[in-house]
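One record is kept unedited as follows:
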Amino acid sequence: MVRLVLFLMIGVCCQVCVTPPALGADALTALKRFSDFSTIDITRLLEGEILSQRGSLMNFPNGISSQFCFATPTSPAETARRLRKWDPTGCTSLKVYVSRRLSNPCELREFSNLSLYLDPGHRPIKRFFDQTMATSAGKSGPNLTRSEARDLAGCVGKDADPKTLGACWARLLFARASDFQRTGFAGTLPYESGETTVNPSSQIRSMLQEQVRITREFAPLLKRAGLVSDGEGVSPLRPDCFWSLFEADHRATLNLGAMYELNVGDRRQLLSIEYYVSGTYYASATLYEIWPFRYGGRTGSLIWRGDLFAAPQLRFTKGIERIASGAIMIQEIKKEVRCFQESLAYP
């Protein structure tokens, strides 16, 4: 359900080799058409290996991308269902404090338990507290509009009590989530706390524009999700919306997201978006394509996953620094994939 990555995103390295009959010509043709994987070794995937490929460098200065390939023993329909309902808090290595799906329309009470996870004795939470307490009408560490920064500062005042801080953030998240559910990506508010104004939806669209083959492969899904401008006349998809509190770059971070699913023949496509992140990075998008496979009497799903991250620090990282950032992040994304695979052992 939620796309949990710390801070940036990472490139991935993978080369795979596959026998066409094992996956079917359609899956292989599609993989070669839009992904960076030219061949796939299904045996390695069935042994649990997670293959990866680092994305090419973007002209968009804030962006970075990666691709993964892995397998599950469940059908595409069941794999997609489990992705949509997955609760990452069960995997402690991901450092997700809480992750909750929202009703549509959402209600304020669905954010009310936020304060239960705000223990200022925990260093990442303390950093989040300090950042919130330092927010004013003219200054904000979190990604907020100027109006939100002013309202948050007025709501919290000098009261560092977790209940107060949690209630103030709950109202802010509720307002943003409600706007998104009503108007989609057209209504995402900008971040105005830095030197420049940043719109998270525009950041995602800018990255997609550079992924021409991927965007073409997922065009129907992207149009019906409202991310592609020429989506007029198509029926919109109703997403699963969620919010989370997790650790990113050693500090507690809040996000709001949405996941979309589209059936395409015998396969499934999913799109998971973080359209609000309180800090460290601006926005992210994760795409999944899930095919059925049959190999040596075993059946299941082959999953391609592509990640796009927009982060302010990327603008200043070049060469070795960017490669190092990718190397760290690939391990985090693989950790997430591994946790999801292990969750499939339980109903």
